[in-house]
Request: fold
Amino acid sequence: MSTLALVSALKDHSEDFEFYPTTDEMLSAVRKDIQAILSDPFSDKYPIFSALDVGAGDGRALMRLTDGDRYAIEKSLMLVERQDRSIVTVGTDLFAQVLLDLRCDVIFSNPPYSHFGAWSEKIVREANAKLIYLIIPVRWQNDKSLQSAIESRKAETEVLAQFSFDTPDADRRARTVVDVVRIRLDKHSHNRGRSYRSNELRVDPFDLWFEQHFAPQSTVADCSNLDPKATIEARAKKRISTGRELITSRGLVQALSDFYQNDLSDLVGDYERICGLDPVLLGELGVSTEALAKGLKLKIEGLKHVYWRELFENFRPVTSRLATKTRQRVMDKLQASMSIDFTPDNVHALCAWLIKNCNQYFDDQLIELVERMTKKANVINYKSNVKTFAEEGWRYGRTPEIERYKLDHRIILECWKALDYGYFGDQSPTLDSTVADLLNDLMTVANNLGFETRHEAPAGRREWEAGQKVLFHFTDRKTGQRAVAFEAKAHKKGTLHLKVNQRLMCRLNVEFGRLKGWVRNAQEAADEMNISATQAQAAFHSNLRLGNDALLALAAPLP
Reply:
């Protein structure tokens, strides 16, 4: 869809919040400056860094600026849907969002010019980043609130370039002249012409926020041993545990959000009342601004963590369907988001990101699993594929380029080690962790293909003996009966033998062929793989996909 068509669609849905895509020239100026500041002085490679785009649109600027972690705040759901799956949406409304705890290297923003001043001021005051890049009208230097924010952060500003949106290369033209402004917040120094940077910010944004909201008091107390985080976490957990009826009646997201806002309001209110006391009395009691600020910061951090963890617990029906490495990647992303405000909009944005990415992960991990089991002894060519491969093509762990194949239901894998007998070789055997991950991933993918395996014990928790088969079962979702999904034998020499349920292997092969683009429909799968049309129809598109109902389930009242 062209930008003009996209703008028209945004207007039709009342979601055009001044979407003017940043031009390539502007982004090139930002990229060049980032490289000069963040790159290794002994390397010409473009640096990898984390970035937040406030008002990210369809994510094109983030994709151009960094290959590192990408975070976005964007109000238009239509534009969020068009963002690359590597972009994590951490908020939808800047003014309902607190940036203090969202730590990243660079913040970029091309704000709505009708209120660029308030937008830019909030970013500067709350940014927890080394560098800020703003695309803003040239009159920004006359904005007193923005200039005050820059001064409060003791920041350095520099105009990198000046551009107009009224040029042929602008995807959406406007008669606006803008400056590309860099605002530097980190401590750095110069020595013989070389810049040395520090991860430390000149002014901590939380300290600035605290000073603005609470009256400064005496500074005589020592707070080195202060650790109030556990107290506030315990209080929040108690509120959740005693509020189950509200969660049931109002839905998980809304109830947790209400709990969080109530806890946060109580917490800030307590500190406001403390700071309203006589400064002399506070000094006599040994209470300092430093102690109060540190205590409040730790408590807010603990409060957010409690509520995000509670929500993540309810993600298990989704995350349990991810393979080992994929699940860890997703959970790491979710953990990194625990510092953002716990609001319904932020929760829904994060859930939408999870669902969008998980659907792709479900497909990717199926392909990866089959390719891990692709060895010469396990491969059967499609009927139309007459090409054969010489023995040397498989040597030294290599896999030749094979055109259109499926796996036999009997699998033999040569592993570096299948069983672990301890350092001296005198202990009872346990399954090697790499092999355990493979078997657990096979159970996960089987579950996604309709074979219920979620209640099966993980491979690593089972008893293993060399050459003895271990059975992995599934529960038929229609009849409730258990059957063997696959059996595994681990041998002392490192070989792993698998015998997979033929119906499961049929689904695995058909979906692998579909995802690789080798079969376009069930009939082609039946013809190529020598299976019945009924089997092919049941297998085609059988891999799990999540829809919007998964997101709505979190918001709906619980039964």
In short: Residues 215-227 have pLDDT under 50 and may be disordered. The chain has three domains: 3-204, 215-361, 367-538. The radius of gyration is 28 Å.
